[in-house]
Design a protein that fits this description.
The complex is a heterotrimer of chains A (409), B (138) and C (144).
Chain A lengths: L1 E7 L8 H10 L2 E4 L5 H11 L6 H14 L7 E7 L3 H17 L4 E6 L5 H16 L1 H4 L7 E7 L3 E8 L2 E9 L3 H16 L8 E6 L2 H8 L3 E2 L2 H12 L6 E7 L4 E7 L2 E7 L8 H11 L3 H10 L14 H11 L4 H19 L10 E4 L6 H11 L12 H11 L6
Parallel strand pairs in A: 1-2, 1-3, 3-4, 4-12, 5-8, 8-9, 10-13
Antiparallel strand pairs in A: 5-6, 6-7, 10-11, 11-12
Helix pairs in contact in A: 1-5, 2-3, 3-4, 9-15, 10-13, 11-13, 11-14, 12-13, 13-14
Chain B lengths: L3 E8 L7 H11 L4 E5 L2 E7 H11 L7 E6 L10 H4 L3 H24 L15 H9 L2
Antiparallel strand pairs in B: 1-3, 1-4, 2-3
Chain C lengths: L1 E5 L4 H9 L3 E3 L1 H9 L13 H6 L10 H16 L2 E6 L11 H14 L3 E5 L4 H18 L1
Parallel strand pairs in C: 1-2, 1-3, 3-4
Classes of the chains: A alpha/beta (409), B alpha+beta (138), C alpha/beta (144).
Chain lengths: 409, 138, 144
Amino acid sequence: MIKIAQLSCGTEYSSVQYEIEKAARSVGATIVHPDVSASDIDKAVERFGFKPQSPQLKLMIARAVQLADRKYDADAVFIATCFRCAEGALVRNELRRFIQDNTRLPVVTYSFTERLKAAQLLTRMEALVTIVTRKELLARERQSGITVGIDSGSSTTKAVVMINNKIAGKDWTPSGDVIRSAEHVLENALAEAGVKMKDVEAIGTTGYGRFRLGTHYNAKLVQEELTVNSKGAVWLADKQRGEATILDIGGMDNKAITVRDGVPDNFTMGGICAGASGRFLEMVSKRLKIEVTELGSLADKGNWRNAKMNSYCSVFGIQDLVTTLGEGRTFEDVAAAACHSVAEQVYEQQLQEIDVRHPIIQVGGTSLISGLVAAVGEILGSKPIVPENSQYIGAVGGAILSSGFLEGY
Amino acid sequence: MNVRETRLIVISPASHITPDQLTRTIHAMGKNVTVKESCYGAVIEGEKEVVREVISEVRKLDVNGIFSKVRAFRVADPRRCRAHHGTRPGFAQLEQEWEDLWKIHRGLDRTDKGEKASVRTERKKLSVEGFKRICEVK
Amino acid sequence: MKIFIDPPNSLILYDLVERFGHEPLSTMAAIQEKIDRTEIDMPPMNVSLEDVMKGLKYAGIEVPSGVRGRLAVWGPMIEDAEAAIIMEDCPYSFGCVGCHRTNLMVRYLIKRKGIPVLDVNYPNDEDEGKDIVAKIKEFLEGLK
């Protein structure tokens, strides 16, 4: 049984503790609370150096120190505090850093409200468990044989056929029915690769529809998108060794993952605000009556400072942009402002929760919007790498990892 | 329906009573309660009235050295069981209060003898003027 | 009389209130009421989403859920209280009293209610232990 150490404040009084334990159980893990005695606490807080007012946060610190000193044995760490609590947010983030500096344990942080998003929590727990249990598989750097990866995302469905460490066929479509969308892209990818379904030796599925597709195709690998995408991203960017940050601004939720040698050690997932997602850019394009693919190149020529927005919101923010156009600003400036707004939101809402490591590999469909990549680069101080086929990370990761099963993983 | 009550009985570190003596005394009363010895005393559980009877009786072993409070969770409730979850937050607090219990124990003894609370003058911060004078002394 | 104690899970305060003939209102009793509700399965505390929403009576939606959930447990107890004893500078109070902001709000709610309140400090030595006992005894006897 995988032991996930929980360091938290407020979960039992926010009606979410049960959900946390349920999510852990459903992925074959158990939540544990490192043992601490009263006499450990002052010393731990002193050593950590941050002295919070809230006693429960002090207890979190003491528990983290137990883990750092190997006095308590766990396989992964889950750190959670209440959303909107400043003291909790500071301690949560600094403890995450402390655990990473002092252990090799994978960590995930989470700020919750009483209306916890069960599906997102499950993905986080699943990823923690995958990192622990499939260490060897995740360390895989090459694809072998003929394998397929299917990424059933909230906005698009992608399929990739790989043959001996090369992409042989690929296709994508906007997501509709999970199975039909997958069948459609798979058929086209197989045709491009010139292979038949019967030749495929292994299939890996990921994304929201992974479980249904996993059953439908009898997939060898059914795995959450955090670990699968990381693998695909470092392979595509040829950054399999060392550290990197993978940023995927998606249609529904964003992922920011830090990796060491291709294996995630911390990640955040967002999904509270449409203003911080690819959906925002889609809506802006629609309102401006241009294709989303044009938005990026328009933005490259504009200056966001000329079209200031008073809101990030996908309703009011977009209205601001339209008003700005009415005032005579150019489409280019407005497009740049839209890209800047999303990048800034991702930075404010998510990237604060991880230590951004360079290089930054930007992936997913939105990485094809050049203006957004430029905006992210401007905010983070260095331009992200956008590998070729960056929108296929999940499918590529699925194909690479599933090929591990051919060699008796 | 009779109301269930679970109680922690905690012995002051300055008391001569041991957890073993405490639990044996409770067992000897022959009341319908569950008793579990702990490092600080015991946990007992039963019908509220019976539990209270037992508590007032067992206190007589050392009136000022035996303390008690109710506990929300039943004995060995899996939701709070240490074996399943490790120590729970309240444990460290109980540990600390137990350690300091002798101060209250002695306080009760002294109050019984008629001692009153002493009037303490609060320490005030040094005035800016006063601090300035100190700084200016060569 | 019903005496609210703060920290509401304190062994020392619970014991002294009972010892001097009053009824302590404690977290333990409030939590017991929740966890014995078999129709709700939200372990460990059975603080449900509905409870957290009830906390809105005491603090707005911009306040973290953990604060509102805690206030939902204590708010009704404070409403029932006829007097209160507040112990400051406690070395450790975790779990239910683990949130400093909630603790500030609880103390404010007690003061706002206008019931008799005794403030004491956690004892550093035997003399202070004696002072606490004597003060609490006098306070509680004065309520009778």
